[in-house]
Amino acid sequence: MTTRQDCQALDRADPLAALRDAFDLPDGVIYLDGNSLGVLPKAAPARLASVIRDEWGTDLIRSWNSAGWIDLPQRIGNKIARLVGAGENELIVGDSTSVNLYKVLSAAATLVRADASSSRRVILSERSNFPTDLYIADSVAKAHGLELRLIEADEIEAHLDERLAILMLTHVNYRSGRVLDMAALTRKAHAAGALAVWDLCHSAGALPVALTSSDADFAVGCGYKYLNGGPGAPAFAWAHPRHTARMDREQLRQPLSGWLGHAAPFQFTPDYRPAAGIRRFACGTPPVLSMAALECGVDVFEQAEAFGGMAALREKSLALTSLFIELVEQRCAGLGLELATPRDTTVRGSQVSFARAEGGYAVMQALIARGLIGDFRAGDAGAPVASPDLLRFGFTPLYTRYVDVWDAVEHLHAVLARGEWREARFAARAAVT
Ligand SMILES: Cc1ncc(COP(=O)(O)O)c(C=O)c1O
After folding, report:
1. Pocket-testing residue among 98, 201, 227, ligand 1, by greatest number of atoms within 8 A of Cβ
2. 225, 279, 280, 401: which is the annotated catalytic residue?
3. Is 128 near ligand 1, meaning CB less than 6 Å away?
4. Which residues of 176-212 are buried (b: 16+ CB within 10 A; e: fewer)?
5. Residue 398 region by backbone torsions, left for phi larger than 0, else alpha for psi between -120 and 50, else beta
6. Beta-carbon count within 10 A of 322 CB
7. Model confidence at 115, in pLDDT bands (50, 70, 90)?
8. Cα–Cα distance between 291 and 298 in angstroms, integer?
9. Active-site residue among 224, 236, 281, 354?
């Protein structure tokens, strides 16, 4: 049986332990929700204060050049590219994940439809994909005369046929934490003559991603989860260089042709001419304050390089999630939790979800009242394959300790065994959870 002392020993031996000091974690809180909103990097308040006081306050508009504001989308993009296996100047930061998905999916649809012989009509995705992805895909489908088809993860391969235009998947499922095989599914989508678009919201900064070597076509991801870029942090878009090169050659556009995606924005011409490469996926003026905060989060990964980088982070993430599963199944056996995340570490992201048939929302509220922050995701009993209510726990190896895992399980045990969750104050739902 693992003890709390064992967990403390694991923390003492953890080669990544020093990185926790790069974050400002509130006292008395065990934060297992970095898969929703990452914590505050200690560097961010001073950086933002300086951007506000010195760059905005003093240098004013000169800061677009003197402080490099205009370069932020590409500069931070290059730092994120290293975390997701992409090349220099292939990834750009800006807008939200939803907006970037609209841009890249539309570009993919344009490329597929530009092939005159194409009778491909289907955008294929998982029914349990994050809803914004499905809403956006539906909009793109309607705009391009395509059809959105939704299936379960295990059915994907059976649907890779001559009707498929785009396979649009989220690498790590936001509910189950299951990882899809990006390289294999991309290869099969290509063999079927389609393109593969990947959402990396739950992968970027959480596990090694290999966009180029997986031969993916397009990708998007957010900045506010494992990259710790702050609430509403800008997202990113990546396109394989073969597609940006073709778009350059054929003067193809993504649909949100804003001025900063123009080849020469400061010539202020009335006609649109897309910038070369990934810059054509930029749209309007970058949100400088949010970009500065995001860069503070992303820069912690440069510090992590000295301790083994993404490979070491992945190893710790799996050790944390495995420990959590082991302890919950020991301590909370018979208390109404069922593992909803793969046991197989090769297909487990950096979160653990437990299905809960009764009072899941109240259980999470009771945990939060004790200082353990995770989150609750409602199921859908009416779906073709019914999905359960989930208690979700995210593990960010940059700042989560083994002892936090131990203490979290003790809170969970107390809430369930003592029936704390039944207290009336935990029942009412807030608008944002
Ligand atoms: C897989 C996935 N895609 C997209 C989003 C959100 O998109 P946006 O950044 O546009 O709000 C989330 C948010 O949790 C997500 O989990």
Report:
1. 201
2. 225
3. no
4. bbbbbebeebbebbbebbbbbbbbbbbbbbbbebebb
5. alpha
6. 15
7. confident
8. 10
9. 224
Above 80 in pLDDT, residue 430? no
User: Residue 187: is its pLDDT beyond 70?
Assistant: yes
The CA 8 to ligand 1 mean position distance, Å, reads 34
Which amino acid belongs to residue 294?
A: L
Angle at the Cα of 145 (from 235 to 281), degrees rounded to 5? 25
CB-CB neighbours of 264 under 10 Å = 10
Cβ(130) – ligand 1 distance below 6 Å: yes
Is 40:230 a contact under the CB 8 Å cutoff? yes
Distance (angstroms) between ligand 1 centre and the Cα of 230 equals: 14
Distance 272 CA to ligand 1 centre (A): 30
Tokens of 419: 């029936």
Inter-residue contact 175 to 55 (CB < 8 Å)? no
Beta bridge partners of 205: none
Question: Is there a catalytic annotation at residue 225?
Answer: yes
3-state helix, strand, coil in the chain (%, to 5): 45, 15, 40
| Other Cβ atoms closer than 10 A to 49 | 11
Q: Would the CB of 232 count as within 6 Å of ligand 1?
A: no
In this structure, what DSSP letter does residue 277 have?
A: G
**What angle do the packed helices 4-13 and 402-417 form, to 10 degrees?**
150
Interatomic CA distance for residues 160 and 165, integer angstroms: 9
Q: Each residue of 318-332: pLDDT tens digit?
A: 999 999 999 999 999
CB 14 within 8 A of CB 339: no
Beta-carbon contacts of 418 under 8 Å, excluding residues fewer than 6 positions away, are none
Query: Two tokens at 22?
Result: 């790069």
Pocket test for ligand 1, best of 33, 97, 353 (most atoms within 8 A of CB): 97
Catalytic residue among 20, 279, 280, 392: 392
Contacts of 240 (CB under 8 A, 6+ apart): 90, 211, 212, 215, 216, 217, 218
Q: Give the pair of three-digit tokens for residue 160.
A: 């890779």
Side by side, which strands form the sheet with 390-394? Answer: 338-339, 351-355, 390-394, 375-377
Q: What is the pLDDT of residues 286-295, one digit of tens each?
A: 999 999 999 9
Does ligand 1 lie within 6 Å of residue 174's CB atom? yes
Q: Is 375 in the pocket of ligand 1 (CB under 6 A)?
A: no
Q: Which of 199, 217, 375, 389 is catalytic?
A: 199
Cβ 201 under 6 angstroms from ligand 1: yes
